[in-house]
Write a structure and sequence with these properties.
Elements: H1 10-26, H2 33-40, H3 44-50, H4 54-79, H5 83-102, H6 108-117, H7 120-143, H8 156-169, E1 172-173, E2 176-177, H9 180-198
Antiparallel strand pairs: 1-2
């Protein structure tokens, strides 16, 4: 599991749920450990037994979200389907889930920046693993004769980089995040267009 996550106790989960709610509502900077303890219904001393800092809380939430996204990606891979459906399944599992959880937050940009500043090692490892998953999917499609990148003069890693740039860009209209429903529609269009562009024959 990315980030070296360990099995988390029920008490830890309660604390993480509380911290995630507060980070989403008020942002990372404005949320204090006292606030988390109160929201979780635990004493401050108890909170520090589980997490020694606000950064540790954020990193644990990030690790938990990565694990969830990976499970959703695994489920999408098992479902299979057409190449467009496979691509969409992976994009929805990774990006759609995160937008569901944080898309309505007024602090989305701050949380995204905190992901980089506080959890860069976790985020980078997760992103690399996800990109590798997509590369394997495209390479498998090529090996099975369902796709070809020859005409575009790209390798699978370059194609995936382009796909991810489109998926990330579709999160916003101007500087405002789109709704989860609109975002999923955009992801489906991206998946269809990408699959059509690399379809073999």
């Amino acid at each position: 599991m990315a980030g070296g996550a360990k099995e988390i106790s029920s008490k830890s989960q309660t604390i993480l749920d509380a911290a995630e709610r507060l980070f989403t509502l008020f942002g990372y900077r404005r949320t204090a450990m006292d606030d988390v303890a109160c929201e979780a219904g635990v004493a401050k001393g108890t909170l520090y037994l589980y997490f020694d800092s606000k950064a540790a809380l954020f990193r644990a939430i990030l690790t938990r979200n990565v694990a969830l996204a990976e499970r959703l990606c695994d489920a999408a891979e098992v479902r299979g389907g057409s190449l467009a459906e496979q691509i969409f399944g992976q994009l929805e599992a990774w990006f759609g889930m995160m937008l569901d959880r944080y898309g309505a937050s007024d602090h989305l940009s701050e949380l995204s920046a905190t992901r980089v500043s506080v959890g860069s090692d976790i985020a980078e490892a997760a992103d690399r693993a996800y990109e590798a998953r997509l590369v394997r999917m495209i390479e498998t499609a090529q090996a099975q004769g369902e796709a070809s990148l020859t005409a575009a003069n790209l390798d699978a890693a370059q194609a995936v980089s382009t796909l991810l740039a489109a998926a990330r860009g579709a999160k916003y209209i101007g500087k405002k995040a789109v709704t989860p429903e609109n975002y999923r529609e955009s992801l489906w269009h991206i998946a269809q267009l990408f699959a059509a562009a690399i379809r073999n024959g």
